[in-house]
Structures are given as C-alpha cells and as structure tokens.
Design brief:
heterodimer; A: 384 residues; MetI-like fold; 2 domains; two-stranded antiparallel ribbon; 11 helices; 66% helix; B: MetI-like fold
Chain lengths: 384, 381
C-alpha cells in the first residue's frame, strides 16, 4: 500500500502528464492547421465577416440582399431562421406532447392506445427520415401553382408554400394593444383579490367567463372606436407566383412539422412519467375531499408532476433546438445551412465558421437551460 | 337474556353467491368501463373510431391491396386501367434491395459483408443474452476480436487473399451498421473513462472531462460531423489525412462518448458509498476497486439506459449524410431519383421501407431494454 504522500505525488504527476499530452496534441493540431491553411492560401481571422456575401437566402427575417449584405449579415439571417423554426416547433411540440402524454393515461382504452401508438411509432423512426418524408412526399404532393387550394380566411396553399394574409397596422392600433394589456392587468388584479377572499372566507370566485368577456370585448370596442386600424394584405394569385401576403416556405413547414411531431412524442413520455410519479394517494386524497377529476388534475396532480417533468423537458427542448440543424437536409436556410454551409464554402474559413456555429448552439443551449432552471426554482416545493 | 337472544341474528346457511354486476364483467363490462364510462368518453371513443376508420383502410389499400409487388420498371407502379389508384411500389424496393444493403460494394465480395453481419449478430447475441456462458469472453470478442475481424473482412486483407475495397464503395445498411457498431464499441469504453474522470478527485482530470462532455452535449451532431470532416484534415499533416468514412466515424464516436459518459455516471452515482468504502477497506487500489466492485454493478443497472442511448445513436447514424456518406437512408434517397423507377409513389414506398427497417431495429432494442429493466427490478426486490 503506497503511502499517502506517494499517492498524492502520483495524482499530481498524472494530472501534469495529462495536461502536457492534451496541450501537446492541441499545439500539434494548431501547428498543422496553420501550415495547411498557409498552403491553401487562406488567411485565418474574422476579416471575412465584413466582406460582401454575394449569395441569396430564400428566407430572411431582416433586410438582406446578396449584392450588398455581408457574411456577418448572412450569419444573423441564418441565426434568426433557426430561432424562428425552433421557437414555433417548441410551442407545438409542447402542446402535442402534453396532449399525447395525458391521453396515454386516459382510462379510455382507445384513446390511451392511439396515443401510445403515436409515441411508439414516432420515437423509433429517425427524425431525418421523418423530415424527408414530410418534405419530399407530403408537401410535394400539394397542388401546383395553377391548382392552388384557397383556404378559408384568404390563405393560399400550393407546393411553393403556404401564403397567409399579412396584417397591416394603421396608427390607431396602439390604442387597441394598450386596451388589451390594461384588461389583462385588470384580470390579474381581480384574480389576486378573489384569491385573497377565498383564502379568508373559503368562498370560491368564478372569473373565467368574466375575464374572457373583458379581454375580448374592451379591445373590440376600442378597435371599432379607433376606426378599425388593421387591414390584411390578402395574397392573390399572380401569373407566375402568388403576390402579397406572408409566405411560409414549404421547407419551414416541413421542418416545423417534423420537429414538433418527433419531439412531441418524447415530451409525451416525459409527461406520462411525470404524472405517474405523483403517488396515487394524492389523487385519492383529493377525491375524498370531494374535488372533481378535472380539478384534481389541475390543482393536485399537475403542479406536483411539473416538478418531475421540468428537468427532462428541458433536455427535450435542448434536443429540439439542436435537431433544428437538420434543416440543412431539405435546404431550409438555418444557421448551419447558411453559415456552416454557404459561408464556409465561399470563404474556406473552416475553423472560424465551425467555431462560431458551435459557440452559438452552446449559447442558445445554455440560455434555454437557464430559463428552464429558473422556472424550475419558481415551482419548487417550499420546504418548511 | 332471552330477549337479547331473539334480537341477534345468525345466518344458518351460506348466502347464495350472486353473479358479478353486469356492467363490471365480461365484454360488455369491459366496453362500459374502458370506452363508454361517461358522455365525454363516448364522444372520444366515437372520435377515435372515426379517425381509425378514416386512416386505416386507405393505408391498408395503399401498402398492401393496391401495391405492386413485382415488376421490371416503373410501368408496374404507374396508374393503369386495371390499377386506377396505384399503391406502394414494392417492386422498386425489390429491384434496389442489394443497393440498400451493400451500397456499391462489389458483387463478388458481398459474401464478406454477409459474414460480417453474421459475426456481429453472434457477438450481440452473446452480450445481450444475460445468462449466456462466459460473457466476459463475449465482451473480449465484441470489443477486441470483432473490430479486427470486421476490418479485415470489410476493408480487405491482401495477405489473406481479400482484396482491398475502398470505403467510398461501402453503403446502405452496411454503413449504417458499421457506424452504429463503431459508435458503441468506441463510446462505451471511452464513456466509462470519461465518467470515471468526471468523478475523479484530481481537478485537472475532472475539468477536462467536464469541458469535453458539456461541450459535445451542447452542440448538434451535424456540427460535430462538420468539424470532423472539415477541421480534422487541417489538424493532421496532409499525408495522414483520414478518409471520409473514418472522419465521420471519429465524429460519431466522440459525440456518442459524451452521452455514454453521462449515462455511466448516473450508474456510478447509484452505487451506495458503502461499496466504495468496503472495497477500499479491503485494500483494493483504485482501478481494481472500479473493475472488480463498482463497474460490474454500475454497468448492470445502466444496461437499459445504455441500450436507449444506443437507440439514439442508431437513429443518429442517418446524419452522416451531411458529410457525404452513403448510409442506408442516403441510398434510399439516391434510389428514389432513379429515372427507371420515378413514379408518384416511389418516394413514399422508399421512405416506408426505410421507416420499417429503423422501426423494427429500434423497437426491438427498446423492448430488450424494457425486459432487462423488469429483470433488474425483480432482482432488486
């Protein structure tokens, strides 16, 4: 048995050796990279950031033109597109996941088994395959431009995308928004008052219908009083394309569909496990107090289940954000396609471009887990 | 006394047993409890039946009844007077089946791939069957013998008379299986090392492990693959530049190692402290303590999670398309564009076939993980 000092010495020597090896490999890699880049006449550094990009991007949320915009601008376009697709999918996946997770626990045999079938099928097929299926099989079979489907409400659907009316805001619209916000604040205030009274007297208050009426009616009155300051630019069929309106690219639609259906199945499992983790005694106690099943679910089971659900739900959200990079397979202009694809190929700055891309995903992942952790703390059990 | 005796009541004969309530037993009771318990349940049941009625018959018609099972080219799968509504084009899958399995692997050498599949299946069976004899030998076979054997078989060993077949010709299910197998063979040992490093007392070791694991888990696999394919050639001298498949394999293995490390770490954390202390008290040094006491227990309880990670890895192998590798899904993508077979139903058929393959593999593995979990739960009780 070596002495304590000897063990400590071995530990320090081991660490020193490890650091030297890792540092040595990194240094050798750096030397080789510098040599190889010099051979290929590529100047490393971030000077390319301000050079003119010169390639087009099919969807840009901020102004972008191939002839004047820079590679830096292209980066922001790609990043915003990633965030857009991931954001929409996040919301949809949460809705699908909670619905399917609760449905799996339904006492209705058919509902439970249909939900379980959805989860089992979707979880066991690669996301990329599902994405290609939605893009190449479903969306391609939509009608051509001339056979476009007219949707109720003025939308147009064809294989070039989904065209929706674009809202156009007139000056008076600010009043409507203000009225809306004020009403929500008022409802929140009334809710607190009712809560207080219920805590004091035990008398429950019913706010739902009143709140709904208030939040809808007051802004509606203001809207008409301000002279209807909102109009829609309805998409119209042009000769060669659809004119006006907001265009949703088929690539975006396929990506959102695939991501939200795939992640929804995983969230369903998370939700199911979370609800099952709440002990049966809690439900029974609530029922013996006379709570109805809906109220039991809302007031007893879900709040406790959420504490179990949040950590795995966070990792599913992170997976979704990372999986949005599969957009590159169908040519949706996300960060990877625009930046790690087009920009890298045009500039040859592999090291810088890949480093920036990875740094962005790391930052987005960290930000997401920070938000979810804060939410987790907010709903944690207050132990006495 | 007599009045009290009169008031008591004693049953002289056993009560006749009644049949269970009608709405609690039998098919009718089952229906009532599981499908028609309340008006809402009835509505949901009707909705679900409508959904099934709307979706299932067309699917059966498309994939089975109207499907074209044989044919020489696209004509078999096009709409014709006999077939106004063409179904799935299974003839296309049959025609391209060899390509789906072997890619461009030369016809004369395909027996080597078959032999590889057989040796792999043998190794998997040995390890997966928990009461198989000498599973330690099985591990040696799977993690040391099999990789050497597979390399000699697939890539070639001129000394043994097996001609070299460049990896550009590999493709299809072969590549999918190779990527997944290399991923597990590398990531399990590496993941164990990383997990041990992360729980180490030595700050430099722990710091490097944490940095690697958290970095890799924070970025998408595609960017890791891009890094492997674009940056790796820069980092080594030009003459050592690895070929395309090897680069992808390095990327996938590193990626899987980080996830495996977290799974193994969970298992290590679940081993009671007393086990470590007892091993120490017996005088076992660190590595023997780990190898003889801790890891056997930790790996046993993490086996279901390892299998689940492997399912994720298996699905993730599809992403190697991004660096130009012809995995199974990519061969389907290539084949569906073949002008001899282009029809409106070719893509769907190809995707359905691919989905069936992945589903059977992943579902099988998840059933296995589940059965191991149940077995462990039984042991623990």
């Amino acid at each position: 048995m070596p002495s304590r000092h000897a063990r400590r010495f071995v530990g320090i020597a081991l660490q020193a050796a490890l650091v030297v090896i890792v540092g040595g490999v990194a240094y050798a890699a750096f030397r080789n990279a510098a040599q190889n880049l010099a051979d290929a006449h590529i100047v490393s550094g971030f000077a390319f950031w301000n050079n003119t990009a010169g390639f087009d991007i099919s969807q840009a949320l901020i102004d972008y033109s191939p002839s004047t915009s820079t590679f830096g601008r292209a980066f922001w376009v790609g990043l915003l597109n990633t965030l857009l697709a991931a954001g929409i999918s996040l919301v949809l996946a949460t809705v699908i996941g909670f619905a399917a997770g609760i449905a799996q626990l339904s006492r209705n045999w058919l509902v439970a088994h249909l939900a379980a079938g959805y989860v089992g099928l979707v979880r066991n097929v690669p996301l990329l395959l599902q994405l290609l299926f939605w893009y190449n099989s479903v969306l391609v079979s939509l009608p051509q431009l001339h056979g476009s489907m007219a949707l109720p409400g003025g939308g147009i659907l064809n294989n070039r995308g989904l065209f929706l009316p674009r809202p156009q805001v007139a000056p008076g619209f600010g009043y409507v928004v203000t009225a809306f916000v004020v009403c929500i604040a008022a409802v929140a205030l009334i809710r607190i008052v009712i809560r207080r009274r219920q805590d004091r007297t035990g008398e429950p208050g019913h706010l739902l219908w009143f709140a709904a009426a208030l939040i809808i009616a007051v802004p509606a009155v203001v809207f008409f009083a301000a002279g209807s300051p909102l109009s829609f630019s309805v998409p119209r069929m042009g000769r060669f394309n659809v004119e006006g309106g907001v265009e949703i690219l088929p690539e975006l639609a396929a990506l959102v569909l695939a991501l939200s259906i795939y992640t929804g199945a995983f969230i369903a499992e998370v939700v199911r496990a979370g609800v099952l983790a709440v002990s049966r005694g809690q439900t029974e106690a609530a029922q013996s107090l006379g709570l109805r099943s809906g109220t039991t679910l809302r007031l007893i089971v879900i709040p406790q289940a959420m504490r179990v659900i949040i950590p795995p739900l966070t990792s599913q959200y992170l997976n979704l954000i990372k999986n949005s990079s599969l957009a590159v397979a169908i040519g949706y202009p996300d960060l990877v396609q625009v930046f790690a694809g087009s920009v890298l190929n045009l500039t040859g700055q592999a090291v810088e471009v890949i480093a920036i891309t990875m740094a962005v995903y790391l930052a987005v992942s960290l930000a997401t887990s920070l938000v979810m952790n804060l939410y987790g703390y907010a709903i944690a059990v207050e132990e006495r | 006394m007599t009045t009290a005796a009169k008031k008591t009541y004693r049953r002289e004969t056993p009560a006749e047993s009644l049949p269970p309530p009608r709405d609690r037993s039998g098919a009718l009771g089952w229906l009532r409890q599981n499908l028609l318990a309340s008006p809402l349940d009835m509505a949901l049941t009707v909705l679900c039946l409508a959904l099934i009625g709307w979706a299932v018959p067309p699917l059966v018609r498309f994939f089975v009844l109207d499907a074209a099972w044989s044919g020489a080219d696209r004509a078999a799968c096009l709409a014709s007077p006999q077939h106004p509504e063409p179904g799935a084009c299974w003839a296309f899958v049959r025609a391209w089946f060899g390509f789906f399995v072997y890619g461009f692997y030369p016809l004369v050498a395909r027996w080597r791939v078959d032999l590889f599949f057989a040796t792999l299946a043998f190794g998997i069976a040995w390890l997966a069957w928990l009461s198989a004899p000498r599973r330690d030998l099985g591990a040696v076979y799977f993690f040391i013998v099999l990789p050497v054997l597979a390399f000699a078989l697939l890539s070639g060993a001129p000394r043994l008379g097996l001609i070299t077949i460049p990896t550009e010709l590999w493709g299809g299910i072969l590549v999918t299986v190779v990527v997944a197998t290399v991923g597990i063979v590398v990531s399990l040992p590496l993941g164990i090392l990383l997990a041990l490093a992360r729980r180490s007392d030595l700050p430099a070791v722990r710091g490097l492990a944490v940095a690697f694991i958290e970095f890799v888990r924070g970025v998408p696999l595609i960017t890791v693959l891009f890094m492997a394919s674009v940056m790796l050639p820069l980092f080594v001298p030009e003459r050592l530049s690895p070929d395309k498949l090897l680069r992808a394999l390095i990327g996938v293995s590193l990626f899987a190692s980080a996830y495996m490390a977290e799974v193994v770490r969970g298992g290590l954390a679940a081993i009671p402290r007393g086990q470590y202390e007892a091993a120490r008290a017996l005088g076992l040094p660190y590595w023997r303590m780990m190898a003889l006491v801790v890891l056997p227990q930790a790996l046993r309880i993490t086996l279901p999670n390892i299998v689940n990670t492997f399912i994720g890895l298996f699905k993730d192998t599809t992403l190697v398309f991004a660096v130009g590798i012809f995995d199974f899904l990519r061969t389907v993508e290539a084949a569906r564009a073949d002008p001899h077979w282009v029809t409106p139903v070719t893509s769907v058929t190809g995707y359905a076939f691919a989905a069936l393959f992945y589903f059977l593999c992943c579902y099988g593995m998840s059933r296995y993980a589940r059965s191991v979990e149940l077995r462990l739960a039984r042991h623990r009780r």
